[in-house]
Amino acid sequence: MTVAAPDPHVRADAEARLLGLATPPGALGRLGELACWFAATQGQVPPPELTNVRLVIFAGDHGVAAHGVSAFPSEITGAMVGTFLAGKAGVNALASAHQVAVRVLDLGVDSDLGEVPADVVAHKVRRSSGAIHLEDALTDAELQRAYAAGRAVAAEEIAAGAQMLISGDMGIGNTTPASAMVAAALGLPAVEVTGRGTGIDDAAWQHKVAVVQQALDRVGERTDDPMETLKALSSADLAATTGYLVAAAEAGVPVLLDGLMSVACALTAERIAPGASAWFAAGHRSTEPGQSLALSKLGLEPLLDLGLRLGEGSGAVAAVPVLRSAIAVLRDVALLSEIMG
Fold this sequence. Notes:
By secondary structure, the protein is mainly alpha-helical. The chain has 2 domains: about 10-50 and about 325-340, Nicotinate-nucleotide-dimethylbenzimidazole phosphoribosyltransferase (CobT), small domain (5,6-Dimethylbenzimidazole Phosphoribosyltransferase, Chain: A, domain 1); about 55-320, Nicotinate-nucleotide-dimethylbenzimidazole phosphoribosyltransferase (CobT), large domain (Rossmann fold, 3-Layer(aba) Sandwich). Helices cover about 50% and strands about 10% of the residues. It contains 15 helices and 5 strands. The strands form 2 sheets. The protein has a 3-stranded parallel β-sheet with strand order 2-1-3, with helices on both faces. Strands 4-5 form a two-stranded parallel ribbon. Helix 12 links the parallel strand 4 (about 255) and strand 5 (about 280). Helix 10 packs antiparallel against helix 12. The longest helix has 20 residues, at about 140-160. The relative contact order is 0.18.
């Protein structure tokens, strides 16, 4: 089903207001464009203040991480879930600074997390996902559970008043399935989309490229179907993220995208629900080549380019003040007609 775009009439009204501001035409650059997009997603001009931004971090492990594609062991995934819950991760610091609510969910972490709130593990699908170069990431039933979980979580966050959603990721090895998802969507070989993730050396990168290509070759023409792509090449956390993004777009709630994992899922969401990407804005450009290729396909220009590769939703959260700046100028700058009497 095609997703309807943000209201074009509201966007036109926002653009007219932008032209009428007491600023030289075009002087606000990307801020002006962003403000008009946000106004259209909210259905009103001037747009409301952006006060309720909600980040959901989807955590999961990846079978491929045991095959030499990452600089870090999988045990870090579970440890980081605890760090998010304690409010001490990188993204927590940014979220606290910018008034963004943070929620973390275990979709496929390869450990028992112990004493965590029940909500954190309520949607757990499995412990780790399949090693995608050797087997499918998920079964049919697991794919449906993960995808439905993402949709349900989006609905919960929207019901809690979210004006904008962000998806975050946590999972050692997750740039490998995300790169495969981008390659599958764009019909590109692994070498063009695969980056260095957490900072692997040349030999490890070449091995990672080979693993991604082996996964693509194994799956073959099944990648023509976006849901088959998720089943074969993603993971529980990435399938849930994709469902979350589709549900947000269908509900008319904008999303600020983060790095490779977020954008790989956005590209897949657009394949599942054409038009969904009109509800997405790109928070930042990561160092991963696949992310830039996917953003180009989606027609999205990132707001920030800071060399970030932390994940977690951090780049998108760092971009929230830019969006708030854009909204402020469209809301609060006087019209030229007002100051000229």
